[in-house]
Amino acid sequence: MKIGILSRGPKLYSTKRLVEAAKKRGHEAEVVDYLKCYVNITSHKPSVHYKDRILNEFDAVVPRIGASRTFYGTAILRQFEMMGVYALNESVAISRSRDKLRSLQLLSKKGIGLPVTGFAHSTKHTDDLIKLVGGAPLVVKLLEGTQGKGVVLAETHQAAESVIGAFMELDAHVLAQEFIEEAGGADIRCFVINDKVVASMIRQGKEGEFRSNLHRGGSAKVMKISPEERSTAVRSAKAMGLNLAGVDLLRSKHGPLVMEVNSSPGLEGIEVATGIDVADKIIQFMEKDAKPWNTKTVGRG
């Protein structure tokens, strides 16, 4: 199988591990910078061009698309799908997961546990919005934020009003969300492949930090999860239509709550913490699933 890894960073841990795992299992793998791709959109023979050549040799592609490049990255991925190339995660599913509001609405529709979340446009509704999520302390999130950026813990009602008002004045879209105090600054990352949790870890924020992101100095260790947590993670990935997902859960008094479903989860944290060769498991799944035109969502927008 010839596999294209759509990534801007050939030296990134996740990209390197996927290339290594593919080659170890006897496949060819090439890293393609999707921002350097361009497309020919035609009814009869759509194509993707890269460095003055047409990319028509791939049997499958693995999208490693950065959040800030979602629009262009998914456009390139969609073109591969229109050519019949198998995508590990499809363009529509990635777009769903990257839209925080849309993803929460889809999870809610499926009855999956979530922190109480509010969304509004006008600053006139700020007071009601704060009350809606249970009052202070509460979390204010920018819809466009990633890796813990654009996430603020407002500890008082007045602080929440100020933060929400400031974001709205900048014409930014924000969510107000219930603060799950009993989580203690920790969350659980479940790595889901093909409706199965293959690895899980608990991430703990550094002292005084409510965000547990490893990029922000958090620590991680292997974690055995409960059947309910396992089921929640699998159902969340399925709701997004993702074959591969990193599902972030909080432990609350009311059971597991989903914070986010990540369509391009990093491999370094989970592999180092658990000792599990996740990259190999991804390639193994693709060997079974990667068939021409094996696409769930192509043509659905």
List keywords for this structure.
single chain, alpha+beta, 16 strands, D-amino Acid Aminotransferase, Chain A, domain 1, Dna Ligase, domain 1, Rossmann fold, 5-stranded antiparallel sheet, 32% helix, 4-stranded parallel sheet, 9 helices, 301 residues
Describe this structure in words.
The chain has 301 residues and is α+β, with helices and mostly antiparallel strands. It folds into 3 domains: 2-89, Rossmann fold (3-Layer(aba) Sandwich), CATH 3.40.50; 96-112 and 182-277, D-amino Acid Aminotransferase, Chain A, domain 1; 117-179, Dna Ligase, domain 1. 32% of the residues lie in helices and 27% in strands. It has helices spanning 13-24, 70-82, 91-98, 100-109, 126-132, 157-169, 227-240, 268-274, 278-289; strands at residues 2-6, 28-32, 37-40, 47-50, 53-54, 60-63, 86-87, 117-119, 138-142, 151-154, 174-178, 186-193, 197-204, 219-222, 244-252, 255-262. β9 and β10 form a beta hairpin. α2 (70-82) runs antiparallel to α3 (91-98). It is globular.
Quick structural summary:
The protein contains nine helices and 16 strands. The chain has 301 residues and is of the alpha+beta class.
List the helices and strands and how they pair.
Blueprint: E1 2-6, H1 13-24, E2 28-32, E3 37-40, E4 47-50, E5 53-54, E6 60-63, H2 70-82, E7 86-87, H3 91-98, H4 100-109, E8 117-119, H5 126-132, E9 138-142, E10 151-154, H6 157-169, E11 174-178, E12 186-193, E13 197-204, E14 219-222, H7 227-240, E15 244-252, E16 255-262, H8 268-274, H9 278-289
Parallel strand pairs: 1-2, 1-6, 6-7
Antiparallel strand pairs: 3-4, 4-5, 8-11, 9-10, 9-11, 12-13, 12-15, 13-14, 15-16
Helix pairs in contact: 1-9, 2-3
